[in-house]
Amino acid sequence: MKNGHAKINFNEALSIHLNYITLILVTIRPGMKEDAEMIADISRYCFYHTYAPVNTKANLDKYMQEQFSHEMLMEEVVDDNNIFLLAYHLGNISGYAKLLNNSAHSKLGSKKQVEIVRFYVLPDFKGKGVGTQLMRACINYAKSKEADFLWLGVWEKNEPAIGFYSSLGFEKFSKHKFKLGDDEQTDCLMFKNLEED
Ligand SMILES: CC(C)(COP(=O)(O)OP(=O)(O)OC[C@H]1O[C@@H](n2cnc3c(N)ncnc32)[C@H](O)[C@@H]1OP(=O)(O)O)[C@@H](O)C(=O)NCCC(=O)NCCS
Predict the structure, then answer these.
(1) CA-based, 20 to 30 A from 28: which of 72, 84, 128, 130?
(2) Residue of the nearest CA to atom 36 in ligand 1?
(3) Cα of 137 to ligand 1 centre, how many Å?
């Protein structure tokens, strides 16, 4: 420290600069009932894009027809229990999160919890900091509800997403089963202690 100024190296300065740019480029707003059509469209698009390369078409089609239809997704948006956050990159829709307040997992005890039910960045916007800003908004939402933990489930084979969540301070705490069509899969459950954020 010289003249009261802390010294930072080039990489730290670059990282601060890039974070600042991302803050300007990415905006987040709550999803409204009027967004139902668009949220249903991007939900199906992101889901298909993420899982089609690593699942059979039959299993994916079955799941999307029976449990992830356009109508079902639109109904979720108009249900007041669900919270949607929409991310925009330079004004273009670039990702969304679906949250559930007071969704407590027994393995996390009796502390107040918010669940991230879905978290997706559109393919063209991956790696631009959208996910980080969207997660920041999820954390802020959970804190505004005085939650102690945020938690989520992620397919054990989705290594990029597990890496992303880990880099943001999430830790694995359990597993659960998820059926995609006829294929029984295992999700890792991960949580973030908001007191440490
Ligand atoms: C996983 C996902 C949400 C990340 O969002 P993103 O906008 O691409 O991520 P960001 O650009 O904000 O990345 C921020 C940081 O996350 C970390 N990160 C991202 N991918 C990572 C990976 N594969 N391994 C480790 N860290 C990773 C890095 O630290 C990265 O910082 P960097 O810029 O210094 O590399 C996004 O890629 C996505 O939507 N994937 C497909 C859908 C999906 O799998 N959703 C989760 C379902 S549970």
Answers:
(1) 72
(2) 121
(3) 15
